[in-house]
Amino acid sequence: MKIYSISLIHTPSSGPCVVLSNANDLSSFSFYQRSSAAEFMPFFSKTVAERTLQGQRQSIQENIYTAHVYNRGGPEELAAVIVTDQEYPVRPAFSILNKLLDEFSAKVPKSKYDDPSSISFSEISTYIQKYQDPKHADTIMRVQQELDETKIILHKTIESVLRRGEKLNDLVDRSNALSSQSKMFYKTAKKQNSCCIIM
User: Fold this and answer.
1) Phi, psi (degrees; rounded to nearest 5) at 147
2) The whole model's pTM is what?
3) Alpha-carbon torsion, ordered 177, 122, 25, 68, to 10 deg
4) Are strands 78-85 and 3-10 parallel, antiparallel or unpaired?
């Protein structure tokens, strides 16, 4: 079980989404893949946050990754995304996101959202280290009942959250936020995973 990335994202009703704080653990990637993965994780997180309605939680699978997203919305217009492998359990992932959103809201005023470079929120790095083992999330399971009562939408593929006719491959190709090396990393990873299906 692995957490690759955690992001806090401003999701205004008008205008583009902005990553306010992000932490990655890319130790499972080879040295040559790390810079590409470091670019891809916030791009993937921002994409799923943009396609998640306010007040909604959902889990989206893409290749070997699962992005759990909670767009809390409200006056702060905040979303949190945790990108994990497919073995990481859903309940602790959403518990972590809920606690992270509470802590970020308490420490960072909305007035700083316009300048993400001015935001200092080192706690996000602590989260990604501490909760690599989902058992450590047990201390934040106070939202368990709320999650049981809330329908979490599990999308089998990223395509189900993209707009009609949109494909993640096309978004990756058109993105100015990703280098050509990161685009190649995404395509290579997708190709390697598609060739290993056992019939």
Assistant:
1) -70, -35
2) 0.70
3) -70
4) antiparallel
